[in-house]
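Hi V.,

Quick status before I head out on leave. The structure for the redesign project is tokenized and pasted below; the design run finished overnight.
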């Protein structure tokens, strides 16, 4: 996977001031729709459901798939990938996905490329991954972003910043926040384009306004440095805060430094120590900063900061979570797909049956989902998110899906 921690320093070391880096985020998404987990590869061909109706449904699905029906091929591939009705088998999933991809289905081309990239059901082959992702990239924003990432990192192809710029821009122009942020970093450092710091700020702002935590941090850092914008410590604090409140640890640490020194905000040791604690929990080295600050604090102030840190709950503004702002109590993840344009989603019941809350990552957006119906026996669940106009995949009817039965409804806390 491309290095998700790629950074480029723009601030030289200074123990009195925030010493952080512009963040270039390399996220590779392996599914069009992610439900907040990698599954084992069970090489079995058995039908796991005991229902004869399910067995007949699979037989009919296979018959249509063999005749070249693209939707049936995709559905059968999804069943094998996720172990629905049939035993989980990545190799068979790849076989059926390939048939649909060869018919020009861009979503499946992208997904097949991801399976080659990760070596799921096939031997890992980055060149094959790039080939399939390129086929989808003219019409599919995730493929555009992924292709840009492969050119940037030189995976499956020679490193080519100019090509990375082209593909990041295509995704960025469609509002994809991770691409917007990465495009900003490349303009900042003149990678593949002439250096243009104002353009960098514009791209950071586009992503930051949509709630992308890394871009919010980057924009805050630009305001602090006065690069591409007039120096404004209050604006720096505002953008650091929005990023920090989503759980982004680098912003949390910087925000602590600002409060401790009274930069862009009234000096507040309790707030500073709170943000140090949270940044430390999320992996930042904060021991020295804490020690210095604690010498200035009373025991009561320290206790209050600890209380506030314990009560902290990350906000989600709507952008895709990074490794840093992904919920720490995340227990189950999986994949699924929209089955209509109104936000109805098909997924596996085991992914959501123990969840208190369900969030869907569709592209770069985070959406709250509710359970409409679930069948533990078939390990199928139907979810619903608010909205219209989702890209959806029609699926073949199955007599075994009991989506309308009242005794299968599960409320979500």
């Amino acid at each position: 996977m491309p290095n998700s921690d790629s950074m480029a320093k723009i601030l030289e070391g200074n123990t009195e001031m925030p010493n952080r880096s512009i963040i270039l985020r390399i996220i590779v998404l392996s599914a069009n729709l992610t439900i907040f987990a990698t599954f084992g590869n069970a090489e079995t061909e058995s039908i796991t459901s005991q229902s004869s109706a399910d067995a007949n449904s699979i037989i009919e699905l296979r018959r249509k798939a063999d005749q070249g029906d693209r939707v049936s091929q995709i559905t059968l591939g999804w069943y094998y990938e996720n172990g629905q009705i049939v035993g989980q088998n990545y190799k068979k999933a790849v076989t059926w996905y390939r048939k649909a991809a060869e018919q020009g289905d861009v979503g499946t081309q992208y997904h097949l490329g991801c399976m080659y990239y990760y070596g799921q059901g096939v031997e890992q082959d980055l060149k094959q991954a790039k080939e399939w992702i390129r086929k989808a990239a003219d019409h599919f924003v995730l493929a555009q972003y992924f292709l840009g990432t492969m050119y940037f990192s030189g995976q499956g192809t020679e490193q080519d910043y100019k090509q990375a710029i082209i593909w990041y821009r295509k995704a960025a122009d469609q509002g994809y926040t991770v691409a917007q942020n990465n495009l900003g970093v490349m303009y900042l450092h003149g990678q593949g384009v002439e250096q243009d710091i104002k353009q960098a700020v514009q791209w950071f702002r586009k992503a930051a306004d949509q709630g992308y935590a890394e871009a919010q941090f980057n924009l805050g850092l630009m305001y602090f440095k006065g690069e591409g914008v007039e120096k404004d410590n209050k604006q720096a604090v505002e953008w650091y805060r929005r990023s920090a409140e989503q759980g982004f640890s680098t912003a949390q640490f910087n925000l602590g430094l600002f409060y401790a020194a009274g930069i862009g905000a009234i000096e507040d040791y309790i707030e500073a120590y709170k943000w140090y604690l949270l940044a430390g929990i999320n992996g930042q080295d904060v021991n020295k900063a804490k020690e210095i600050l604690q010498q200035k604090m009373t025991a009561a102030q320290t206790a209050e900061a600890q209380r506030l840190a314990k009560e902290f709950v990350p906000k989600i503004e709507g952008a895709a979570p990074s490794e840093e702002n992904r919920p720490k109590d995340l227990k189950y993840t999986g994949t699924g797909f929209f089955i209509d344009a109104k936000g109805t989603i098909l997924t596996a019941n085991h992914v959501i049956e123990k969840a208190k809350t369900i969030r869907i990552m569709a592209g770069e957006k985070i959406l709250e989902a509710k359970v409409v119906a679930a069948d533990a026996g078939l390990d199928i669940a139907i979810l619903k998110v608010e909205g219209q106009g989702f890209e959806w995949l029609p699926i073949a009817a199955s007599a075994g899906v009991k989506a309308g039965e009242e005794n299968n409804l599960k409320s979500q806390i």
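Above is the designed sequence. The first strand starts at residue 7 and ends at 9.

G. will cover questions while I'm gone.

Best,
W.
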